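User: Can you predict the 3D structure of DUF1129 domain-containing protein? Sequence below.
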Amino acid sequence: MAEKEQEKNNSNINAEKQEKLKKQSEVDAKDEELKNEDPKTLRQKLSNKNQDYVFRLEKELQRQGSLSHEEAVAMTDGLLSEIVIAQRHGQPANGLYLASPKIKAEEMLHPEQKTVETPFWQRAVDGALLYLAIFVGLFGVIALFETKQPQNSQMGILTLASVGILMGVFMVKYNDWVMPKNGQRIGLPKLLLSGLGIAVALFIWIWILSLPAIRVINPVLPGAVDIVIAAIAYGARYLFRQHYHITGSSFASRPQRK
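Assistant: Sure. Here are the predicted structure tokens for DUF1129 domain-containing protein:
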């Protein structure tokens, strides 16, 4: 009886495997068929989001390369099959290329230039300095106008600085999580749990820094001083980006080209 049950389970498993292989074969066949389809037909299959991407890409090719409309269209025709294939698998063009139309156009016009992805630590420092400037600067401005609010109710400089830095690093990491790599994307449950864990950690950290015993190293500074610190942080960020040739967004930075 047990042997028959085992045989039945094995048969079901084999059937499931065969069904998965059949579906994968059909997907691969459809992808292969798209590679040989006419560009005009492929354009009709583009989603609204991908149509906009291709349209802006063609405009950038015309602008950057001084190309005619026909020449720009001919260049984007060569990308349509891979865009539509990626679209079938739930990946838009900006996720496929990890580049805006402006950057993608530059890569297409100068293919001999090798692209090098900005290292995580450089993007993390860039994001940390940006959020440090935003957090400290924002609370500095608020402090200038909140003359009636008691000083003890405001956040200390260590709280503002640490939360800003941690948020900047987290946003860079979050971008890495949500942007597909090698066709894979972090699962939604894992993403939500990670975000929740970081939020809890931040609240605990803020609570620790608000304890009276910590006040001596976490003073509440005048608004003008906060603004000066924010300006210094932003200036340091500017110099850092110049030194490492970082361009584009802090969280989806433009690859360096060599």
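The chain has a mean pLDDT of 81. Strands lie at 115-116, 247-248, 253-254, 256-257.
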